Amino acid sequence: MSEDIVQRVIANPKYKEMTRMRSTYGWVFSAIILVAYYVGFIGIIAFDKQLFAQSISGGAMTWGIPVGFGLMILIIALTGVYIWIANSKFDAMERSLLNDVGATHE
């Protein structure tokens, strides 16, 4: 891209809105993961180890296993949601922005 197009993109309000939205989604999803992992998982391990060590139904499986899997599922789900948002909203915003400044998507 030429320097002129780059400057027009940076000056465009759609670019500012898109970067603000991407940043907001990134911080919100990061906060959800950090709270779930550090407060929910590591915090419980630090202050109440026996909670995750308790058997679910008197068998060998403890609460730590499904909670750990649940945390992994949460991470995968949030990644999928972010990808969906990026592919639907952000890509459309990018195309609109490039059309506004007279650039093509390369």
From TrEMBL:
For this record, the Gene Ontology CC terms, alphabetical, are: plasma membrane
Domain of life of the source: Bacteria
List the transmembrane segments: 24-47, 67-85
- The protein depicted here goes by the name Uncharacterized membrane protein (DUF485 family)
**Keywords for this entry?**
Membrane, Transmembrane, Transmembrane helix
InterPro entries named among the record's database cross-references = DUF485 (IPR007436), Inner_membrane_assoc (IPR052959)
